[in-house]
Amino acid sequence: MGDLRASMIDRPLILDGGLATQLEAAGLQLQGDPLWSARILHTNPAAIKDVHNRYLHSGADVITTATYQASIEGFVSHLGLTHEQAQQLLMSGVELAKQTVKDFSSGGLLSDRRMPLVAGSVGPYGAFLHDGSEYTGRYEEKMSIEELKAWHRPQIQCLAAAGADLIAMETIPSLKEAEALVELLREFPDCKAWLSFSCKDKESISSGKKFSEAVQTVSRCTQLIAVGVNCCPPTLVQPLLQSAKAHRKGDISWIVYPNSGEAWDTNTGWITSTKEASFAELSSAWVKEGALWIGGCCRIGPADIAQLKSQLHGKH
Ligand SMILES: [Zn+2]
Fold first, then answer.
1. Residue 108 C-alpha to ligand 1 middle, in angstroms?
2. Domains of the chain: which residue ranges?
3. Which residues are annotated as a binding site for Zn(2+)?
4. What topology does CATH give the domain 12-313?
């Protein structure tokens, strides 16, 4: 997969956009499901493959597996699987993505295209709790670093064993959980990873800690190739990166993949009127700040990724 250190990347890598958004657009019901998009690994893997494929065709250099909310415990209790079947299902998320990349590149890639990477998604513990705490990180007070490591270990084991090119530790609201994740990563010395925080304002991660402190703490991990933010409004990205400028280590790039900036209202759903400058338009400023991994999260689809690609790589 090549060297992914910042100094070895000559132009930004394009990530994919939201997976769940596309599954919902295809008519699948995810809202209110404790397994969210991970259930579709069990019920309709072809739909996931189709979304991966659409992002590859839109120019994504990295696709992210449908395992954000996947856990052995969740699969056992919500799908009635055995422990071993749950492990297999988790691993199938990576296998599906790898197969899609293989099919996509089988006829040969265009000369300007690098071989797409598969990032194994790891969401926060709060996503499993399914009580909104993935956006506050408030469970961190009740859990030790060791407990958080124990929670994440089986999932990372599966993603690594299935051959993910790197691990995507994403939408992490809590610094304690981020510390647990980077400690845990040392148990998998061959794995590279990115760690991306969910943030609530221009300088703080969702739990309220400063983003700059979070960046400084996790940047000690030599297995990280990028650190950054995801699933925040696009307008928060630049101020967040600037707030932590002095704390990022040279060979760790910024990774950013905001959502569309539309607000979520529990009663009425997505409020679409707040969309400001397009996310592709803002992306050039993120590159100036040192972002080398750029994509989208919720409500960002294949067309936005294609626009991002032409903004950052030029039209082909
Ligand atoms: Zn998101």
1. 32
2. 12-313
3. 231, 297-298
4. TIM Barrel (3.20.20)
Give the ranges where 58-191 is alpha helix by DSSP (H). 72-79, 83-105, 125-129, 145-161, 175-185
- Which residues, 6+ apart, have CB-to-CB distance to 187 below 8 Å? 153
Q: What is the pLDDT of residue 249?
A: 87
Q: What tokens does 311 get?
A: 């903004």
Q: For tokens 């926060």, name the residue.
A: 124
> How far is ligand 1, taken at its centre, from the CA of residue 260, in Å?
9
Q: How far is the CA of 298 from the centre of ligand 1 (A)?
A: 4
- CB-CB contact of 120 with 160 (8 Å): yes
Q: In angstroms, what is the span from residue 100 Cα to ligand 1's centroid?
A: 22
CA angle 183, 247, 132 (to 5 degrees): 60
Q: What pLDDT sits at residue 316?
A: 45
Read off the pLDDT of residues 280-301 as tens digits, 9 standing for 90 and up: 889 999 999 999 999 999 999 9
Across 13-38, average pLDDT: 92
The Cα–Cα gap between 25 and 66 comes to: 16
Are 72 and 155 in contact by the 8 Å Cβ rule? The answer is yes
Say how many Å lie between the CA of residue 161 and the centre of ligand 1.
26
Separation of CA 258 and ligand 1 centre (Å) = 7
What confidence tens digit (pLDDT) does each residue in 207-261 have? 999 999 999 999 999 999 999 999 999 999 999 999 999 999 879 999 999 998 8
Supply angle C-alpha 234, 235, 240, rounded to 5. Answer: 95
What distance in angstroms lies between residue 262's CA and the mean position of ligand 1's atoms?
A: 11
- Output the known binding site: 231, 297-298
Tell how far the Cα of 98 is from the centroid of ligand 1, in angstroms: 22
pTM above 0.70, yes or no: yes
Q: Quote the tokens at residue 244.
A: 């932590």
